[in-house]
Amino acid sequence: xxxxxxxxxxxxxxxxxxxxxxxxxxxxxxxxxxxxxxxxxxxxxxxxxxxxxxxxxxxxxxxxxxxxxxxxxxxxxxxxxxxxxxxxxxxxxxxxxxxxxxxxxxxxxxxxxxxxxxxxxxxxxxxxxxxxxxxxxxxxxxxxxxxxxxxxxxxxxxxxxxxxxxxxxxxxxxxxxxxxxxxxxxxxxxxxxxxxxxxxxxxxxxxxxxxxxxxxxxxxxxxxxxxxxxxxxxxxxxxxxxxxxxxxxxxxxxxxxxxxxxxxxxxxxxxxxxxxxxxxxxxxxxxxxxxxxxxxxxxxxxxxxxxxxxxxxxxxxxxxxxxxxxxxxxxxxxxxxxxxxxxxxxxxxxxxxxxxxxxxxxxxxxxxxxxxxxxxxxxxxxxxxxxxxxxxxxxxxxxxxxxxxxxxxxxxxxxxxxxxxxxxxxxxxxxxxxxxxxxxxxxxxxxxxxxxxxxxxxxxxxxxxxxxxxxxxxxxxxxxxxxxxxxxxxxxxxxxxxxxxxxxx
Amino acid sequence: xxxxxxxxxxxxxxxxxxxxxxxxxxxxxxxxxxxxxxxxxxxxxxxxxxxxxxxxxxxxxxxxxxxxxxxxxxxxxxxxxxxxxxxxxxxxxxxxxxxxxxxxxxxxxxxxxxxxxxxxxxxxxxxxxxxxxxxxxxxxxxxxxxxxxxxxxxxxxxxxxxxxxxxxxxxxxxxxxxxxxxxxxxxxxxxxxxxxxxxxxxxxxxxxxxxxxxxxxxxxxxxxxxxxxxxxxxxxxxxxxxxxxxxxxxxxxxxxxxxxxxxxxxxxxxxxxxxxxxxxxxxxxxxxxxxxxxxxxxxxxxxxxxxxxxxxxxxxxxxxxxxxxxxxxxxxxxxxxxxxxxxxxxxxxxxxxxxxxxxxxxxxxxxxxxxxxxxxxxxxxxxxxx
Lengths: 505, 386
Ligand SMILES: Cc1cc2nc3c(=O)[nH]c(=O)nc-3n(C[C@H](O)[C@H](O)[C@H](O)COP(=O)(O)OP(=O)(O)OC[C@H]3O[C@@H](n4cnc5c(N)ncnc54)[C@H](O)[C@@H]3O)c2cc1C
Ligand code: FES
Hints:
The structure holds 2 protein chains of 2 kinds. By secondary structure, chain A is an alpha/beta fold. Chain A is 39% helix and 19% strand.
């Protein structure tokens, strides 16, 4: 008799949703978390009168109550939909490059087509066609492609996934070039590249197309109380179902027997036996450090060589003593840059030179509860790899952080003048901060670099140890929607196998 | 032998697969990465520090500076104004108290903690009266957000200190001097009597050496014949010394009563809250006087705390839950013991708990029953998840 049917390591999005699904599916589950709070990235913290969302900018894939989409179904099955309040955002994003363009896209496919067709009338047809393509590629990616792959028949794949076959693994840049003439139009429609962490010429089109469509058709959402509310709700659901949780309790080793998992040892030395382990820690940590016999994961480590450490972020969490209106903000999500060239912007993520592009998210536009009346919370972020921080000596760390924050503020003030004078509270998160709280190599926030070679349709699954499963951004796409879904999917596959075994016995 | 991969019909699939093969050539298996991550985090934000008391400096009759060094080598850097939480065992109880670092961040060989003995205190008398050189102590790494933030604090800084609240101030002053920062710093320091002034000589030296610094001493219970400023640090005194206030940033660190009083006085001067930074200083001294405490509950009321799956004990409504847990042999992570850092977060499964305004709870924590145990008061029998 094992202590638990399953042990989940890490209470991030993937770990939480896996734990809830397993426990609700009837498996006695232990959830281990090294911090004192569930959520991983999906958390918030309080300074003075303000509560700061750490990571969630816009939640995709939810759909409306009337037209629920995939993620709402997942939340329903996890028992959390009624435990949180979702707030619909009415704008997709504002895209502003001073002297070039300043445009706000509404949160609907028809609205996007209309807004962009007014701005770029000569390309109106192409805009419509492009958005149509985003829609079909989304449907193919989620429905037709998995079915076709299961069929094993290349003709089925060709027939049922025509658009994916043609465009899915092309670079977003190539597809944009095929559809559009204006480089400004391409830049505006490609605005979300930052959410995937790769510039358009390295980002598979299906990633951007799906993201754009998912936000436009299923709406971008905020959560009242931030993503922490959802993390707390998931934990509540887990406890209600009878799950066991330990906080301040990191997993130290995954123990194996005969090539399959047998137990987990915690940092406090307790050993809990089990047959299934879901690790929400990075694959790098799971296979290289947690696994008691790393030689079991030889394949996985060979596979690592074909991957590159993903990007992290540099974030300013700010409490401002003014309203969004005072700052002239209509949309919560503002992509701000001094050039439309995403490649140049991306290049700056590898060092400390002045950033050229950033994201200013003002949560108070939709959610008035995170700041006192008349005030706002905002997060100002740019992409940055962890690597440049490796060469910063500990005693230089603070000065480096403040100096880079100055540059980021200066960049954003090109579009939101003088917001600095409104700063009442500010906290800075660097890639090292992300590393500390997420325990990911390089502070990576979306897993490995999500290039075309990283795409799920290109990769084969590596599963070196029986009963050891990964759930999170390291085995699929990073971001909120993908990781919630990944956790639920891993749990579903474990439960499926368990039930077949149970029936056979 | 498997046949052709059906995915080859996808444009770009074969190219991506051969790209993967190329990447393997100059890729790595990240085998050394977990250790690097751990080392990096530990250098900046170690969870615990092993410390040895290398010296005990007598500052005043009631105050000692404990000079702490690391037997493991260097100490992590900190920002002047930050604190560490010092773990101690007093009368068999494992507990801790936060103390600001009073030495300069540039002195990487040691941290100085300057501790003033509190009359009714549990830990400070032990630290002041019993700690000798050679003693081993454990602490958290440096933490807290009470420091000079170059982004929005400006260049004209005022620090209102009371008693041991001068500890973070002198660290800031030493830091500004070492880095030659282009700021002005006015320390207004309240003490009871002149023999109560901590760092008196050091402050005089610093003031002589540096133009950026002004120190004003204020005595609340002056000895006969004291010539300088006396009384409390109130609105009139602040306005008198600091006008114009409109571009200044004010730091406030003193005993709880002083923080409350001076906070209100600052408001009278018209100083916006935005430019006033008040350091935390423990749980409220009288929680029953706070808004929301029910009239029907006395601080002495006996309540039972059940720690889910582990046991239960008796305590009183007026004792912070964290203290009660520690007295009864339970350990909960903690650092600020003032409601701010959230490390002592626990879930209340049943019963009623009072959280004063010190508890910087997340919105959803309130909804799902999480409290900060260092400033949580059980008003009824409760069950918690630890
Ligand atoms: C960030 C930070 C930095 C600090 N820096 C310094 C510093 O540099 N130097 C320094 O000397 N101090 C500093 N302090 C204060 C220090 O942490 C201790 O609070 C102080 O030493 C008193 O500890 P104690 O154990 O002696 O007193 P405690 O036993 O904690 O008692 C303190 C007061 O609270 C009252 N009290 C005790 N228990 C209860 C209860 N159950 N209910 C209500 N009231 C109670 C006591 O009667 C007493 O008046 C700092 C505090 C913080 C939060
Ligand atoms: S110890 Fe910091 S909030 Fe309780």
